[in-house]
Write a structure and sequence with these properties.
The chain contains five helices and two strands, in the order αβαβααα. It has a two-stranded antiparallel ribbon. The protein has one domain. The protein is mostly helical and about 110 residues long.
Length: about 110
């Protein structure tokens, strides 16, 4: 599971999460998207708690996960880092962030087409 999650997920949930993490590692070629060094953990750009119960499934999508090295992962929990990472993912992979919680997390700092 991403970042060593230890929740009450079913085996099926764990398999899906693991599969998504593997896709992200492959997409990012196992490299930190900030510096290019080896990435140790896929990072959830927007925390699961921000999605609410109705939208929790959106947290585990590759649009919300990025590979980072430990140094950059430790620095990734700021609004500036969220904006930078979602902008990078948007530009590189054409992901769309035009609904909540994306808009709430990014605010005016992130223009929506």
């Amino acid at each position: 599971m991403c970042q060593g999650e230890r929740d009450k997920a079913t085996d099926s949930d764990r398999d899906v999460k693991q599969s998504i993490c593997e896709e992200v590692v492959e997409r990012d070629q196992g490299a930190c998207q900030d510096c290019g060094r080896a990435a140790h953990d896929p990072h959830h750009v927007i925390p699961k708690s921000w999605f609410g119960k109705k939208n929790k499934h959106l947290c585990e999508r590759k649009e919300n996960i990025i590979c980072l090295c430990r140094e950059h992962h430790n620095q990734a929990h700021t609004k500036a880092a969220r904006v930078r990472h979602l902008t990078l993912l948007r530009e590189r992979y054409n992901y769309v962030y035009d609904s909540q919680p994306w808009i709430g997390a990014l605010g005016e700092a992130y223009p929506v087409d």
